[in-house]
Design the sequence.
């Protein structure tokens, strides 16, 4: 059974435009959580330093064995699989917010990223990727004959 959020049409109220922005935001979040797609996004920071790019992703509760990092051409994919074993309880469950499924992020890397030397480290639910930069290739001049 899929629950459908109740939407009110508040066009007669003066603040309806502002309220509808909030309603649309929360309805989109609700719909995204309940979509048929099994993958969700993870929060991350991307920082560029002089000699490398650094990606810091929050993955609380994940083990490094649950995370898969792959690179194809210039596309970096980080995927984490979360399997929560739900235990039967005798009490009534009023709210269940823990997520079981997969998180995935796809990032396009810049041309100067050295994908052969990417390093990854997982510590306290935070994944850190260091992507070194390549030296720029020298300008190649072509002589006209």
Sequence:
């Amino acid at each position: 059974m899929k629950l459908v959020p109740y939407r009110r049409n508040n066009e007669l109220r003066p603040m309806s435009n502002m309220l509808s922005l909030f309603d649309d935001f929360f309805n989109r979040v609700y719909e995204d959580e309940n979509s048929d797609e099994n993958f969700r996004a993870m929060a991350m920071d991307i920082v560029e330093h002089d000699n490398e790019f650094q990606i810091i992703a929050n993955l609380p509760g994940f083990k490094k064995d649950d995370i898969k990092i792959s690179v194809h051409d210039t596309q970096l994919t980080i995927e984490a699989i979360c399997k929560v074993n739900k235990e039967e309880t005798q009490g009534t469950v009023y709210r269940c917010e823990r997520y079981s499924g997969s998180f995935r992020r796809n990032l396009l890397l810049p041309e100067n990223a050295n994908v052969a030397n990417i390093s990854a480290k997982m510590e306290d639910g935070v994944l850190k990727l260091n992507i070194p930069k390549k030296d720029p290739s020298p300008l190649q001049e072509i002589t006209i004959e």
